[in-house]
Structures are given as structure tokens and as C-alpha cells.
Amino acid sequence: MSQKSVPKNQIVQSYVGQITVVGECFCYGCAVDGQQLVYLDVAGPATSVEAVWAKLAQAKECYLLPPDHAAPKITLRTAEGLLKRIQRKIEGIGIHHLLLLHQDLLTPTYAELSTTYLFLADKTQATAKLGSHIQQLVDIAVFPAWYAYLVQQGRLEGLIAPLTSYGGVNLWKLSLDKTCWQRLICRGVSQRSLTLPN
Fold first, then answer.
1. What is the pLDDT of residues 106-126, one digit of tens each?
2. Domain count for the chain
């Protein structure tokens, strides 16, 4: 039996468990940054998915129950106003699909010190996105040829770190620390790990 291949740049969905607030809905992906929900993918009857959204929007906890009853429940929580809701009805079957995404994932703030998140659906895409974030953050030139170095050094310096993810989705936290990224780039240039393009 052959496995269905997932197209490049597609976020993988895999059953994680159930959330019960008003009726049941099913979770197909989730990522948390410590105690903060960053990404949630659920489907179910409209009342069920809307109840999950309403509870989280009020900064109340929800619990994700994995199919393995011996596994601990996953606590989902967020501060009020931090999640963007995307919901659509799947025609013909009466199911609603809900995605919740952290605002910092969608609209990063390029200040002295902030945070954003990256989907790692494809290494090339994630590397390019990280480079784009760094270009917008720092006050010095950043060239596409440097992106792979920035990923490597960012991970070593703790500026890029994986989130706790469930269901096949892979998200990373990116610290937008302007001073650290500028220092990292300057060090790379001075040590000749980074060279200026011709």
C-alpha cells in the first residue's frame, strides 16, 4: 500500500484528539509556545467549533484529549485578543473547519524586541521567510545568500526554537531581537562566514 504524498509547502494535518466544549470537535493540528496557543486546527459541527473559539477568545482554557486515554490532556490557553479566527463551512457535510492563528504569526512587530512564528512546511520556504523577517528587522543589509547562515546561527544562539507541536504541523518561534541579529550578522561578516555579493 503506497502512502499519499503531501505536496511541498502544505501544512500536514493529522488527527490529534477531541475538544469538547459544546459537543465534540476534532483537532488536526496544534502548536503551543509554553502556555500560549499559537495554532489550532479543528473541525466539527458549527456549535462545537464556535464554542471552542468563544472559550479561547474569553481567555478561558480548553482541553485537547488525545486518542490514547493514557496520554495527558493538552491544555489550550491564550490571552484575550491574541488569536485570529478563520472559519469556513465544508459544503455537503455540515462540518465547519476552524483555524486559530496567533496575531504575531500573521502580523509581526519589527521593534527592538518581539516574537513571531514560522511554519516549517518546507525548508526553502522557511529559510526565505526567516530571511525576510530579519531584513525587515535590522538596520543593515541582509542578502538572500546569507539566509542559510542566519538559520544555522539563529538556532545556535537560541533565536529560533521549535514549538511544542501536535498532529504533523511544525512551527518555530523566531525571536525578533534586533540587537542580537545585528551582532550575529556583523560577526559573520567580520569572520568572513558571510561575504558581500559581487
1. 999 998 899 999 998 888 999
2. 2
Q: How many CA atoms are closer than 13 Å to the CA of 24, on its beta-carbon side?
A: 5
Q: Could you tell me the residue range of the domain that residue 46 belongs to?
A: 17-103
Of the CA atoms within 13 Å of residue 40, those in its CB half-sphere come to 35
In a domain, 161, yes or no: yes
- Summarize pLDDT for 161-188 with one digit per residue, the tens: 999 999 989 999 999 999 999 999 999 9
Residues 123 and 98 in one domain: no
Contacts of 178 (CB under 8 A, 6+ apart): 110, 111, 112, 113, 137, 138, 139
pLDDT at residue 92, as a whole number:
85
